[in-house]
Write a structure and sequence with these properties.
This protein is an alpha/beta fold. The chain has 18 helices and 10 strands. The chain folds into 2 domains: about 325 residues, ABC transporter type 1, transmembrane domain (ABC transporter transmembrane region fold); about 240 residues, Rossmann fold, CATH 3.40.50. The strands form 2 sheets. A 6-stranded mixed beta sheet has the order 6-7-8-3-9-10, sandwiched between helices. A 4-stranded antiparallel beta sheet has the order 2-1-4-5, with helices on one face. Strand 7, helix 16 and strand 8 form a beta-alpha-beta unit. The protein is elongated and about 120 Å long. It binds adenosine-5'-triphosphate. Adenosine-5'-triphosphate binds next to helix 10. It holds the Pfam family ABC_tran. InterPro entries: AAA+_ATPase (IPR003593), ABC1_TM_dom (IPR011527), ABC1_TM_sf (IPR036640), ABC_transporter-like_ATP-bd (IPR003439), ABC_transporter-like_CS (IPR017871), P-loop_NTPase (IPR027417), Type_1_exporter (IPR039421). It is found in: Cell membrane.
Amino acid sequence: MPEDPPEPSHRPVPEPDLELGEIAPSTYYAHHDTMAAVGFLTMARRLPSLIAEALRLAWSASPRDTVSTVSLSLLGGIVTAFGLLATTGALSALLSEGPTPNRVLAALPSLALVGAAAVARALLQAGAGWAEARLGPQLERAAETRLYGLTSKVELIAYDDPEFHDALERAEGYGVNTVGVVVSSAVDVVTSLVGIAAAAGVLGVLHPVLLPLLPLAVLPDAWAAIRAARQRYTTVNGLVPARRRKYIISRLLADRDCAAEVRAFTMRAFLLRVYDRVARAEQEEMLKLVRRQTLTRLTGQALGGLGSALVYVALGVLLAVGAIPLAVAGTAVLAIRSAQSSLSGLLFTTNTLYEQGLYFTDFLRFCADAEGRLVPPRPRPAPEGFDRIAADDLTFTYPGAEEPALRGVSVEIKRGEIVAFVGENGSGKTTLSKILAGLYEPDTGTVHWDDTDLREVDPEALRARTAVIAQDHTRWPLTARYNITMGTDKGEQALHSAATVAGADEVIAGLPHGYRTLLDRRFKDGHELSGGQWQRIAVARGFHRDADLLICDEPTAALDARAEHALFERISGHADGRTVLLITHRLASVRLADRIYVLEHGKVVEQGDHDALMARGGLYADLYGLQAAAYR
Ligand SMILES: Nc1ncnc2c1ncn2[C@@H]1O[C@H](COP(=O)(O)OP(=O)(O)OP(=O)(O)O)[C@@H](O)[C@H]1O
């Protein structure tokens, strides 16, 4: 354990508290339970379908390399069998009667065959290895392209569905990485099976009585390997919660985000103690496992030795009674050894294939589910613009939510207007704006751009006509330029004017490489911005887009007073002729709106301009009065 720092004398460090609650299960260990419980036969039964799925995927990534991998591996097995049979010829000649030079001469053709088989096998194995290695990166790319093609295309609402999230986490966190391993394990399983079949075939050809000797020699090893693997799974599965807890604590000790607080609150000694307790417990379990596995392997080896002894005795008896010649017995020993090595390969790869196959299946299931979440093709093109947007009687409930976020909402936005949504937290403003932007589909009700029903329009095309300055905008790990243009370069003039409107020009002027500065500290020469500076960039992004409808969701929450004032001035100047939908809690700023909708619990409870709403003396007047009082 690392040495503890001296405790501060003025305050005792509390005892490490391990009562941190249950650790939630993790994607990375999603199938450990299954692996600890499942038997070898269950694994073996699942093999054919797993091998078929893996080969189908491999075929889609590269038919040529798939065929090469499989055919060269199979040929390698056949050549091995051929080499073993040629050995019998060589041994027969060498062990026959007569002077040694004559016996060697007689053995030469068979020896040449044995040599040729060895060379051919080596070449075939190298070829298979090469094709398999080529397949790996192609598979990885195919799987990732498929995954990310789907994640970026599914309906946005999928991201609010916990089941989609879980499935995505499993597919992305682990499933996609297993594709290559599953395919290579599938090929290895087939190769090992061919190796065993070849050895068994050779024994059968040499003498049928030799066949029953094979299980005698190979089963003890097989038993030990399977048992040791089970022991490891059971232990590691039991350790999953401890390992996750250790990982969480290790992040507190090593992550940048908490580095300052770890020091400010002198947390080091406390955290190290908690870490050490968990790590020690884990170490104890691992040492116990090592002891148990060693015992199992010793038993397996002892039984294996016994099995081999029995094989030799049986061979001796067969030789003594003249059932088989010496050359055949010699080849049988070689064939049994070859089967043993194929079997240990088979056990290892079966285990790997089954385990990785569980995660691989997660990947396949996710892709199938995501396909079902794609927006079906829509008949009408997106409207060129609008004179009036009308939302009628919208209701919307988030997946899994008990209460609807919107209940029977109707709003109207005319071209060139500034319309504001106000209301307390959680009243439904952002949800409504996302439906108007075509990001969510309402459960019931309609949105029309003039006479076009948005349900008939491709949402992607519609989104090209709207710009959203989001409340929780993304801090893209790109240059300042790309953070504003988002890859749609409209020239320097458009870039500078959008940046100026948002006050982002001042931010960019202060960056070491101006617009070319990377806004992410994880990259070399990357730069970090403050919350308000980021918001200015996000606002510039919205203004840069050629959109008929500009949705500003809390665009000034992080801005200083001067920047906020400048932005609202700009919006009140009708943002270069755009229609603006403004969501804000700063009610002084919505005075400029042509119409204000006040939302409460997912319903529009008031609407009108500022003066009308103040005169009404309802929720808006209450909220406005509260804010105004704070400045008096
Ligand atoms: N992704 C989501 N999944 C489930 N419920 C959600 C989700 N997003 C919002 N909600 C719920 O929907 C309701 C409306 O949320 P919305 O974000 O539209 O409110 P808002 O008026 O924009 O709030 P705020 O002023 O805090 O931004 C809230 O009750 C909220 O808890």
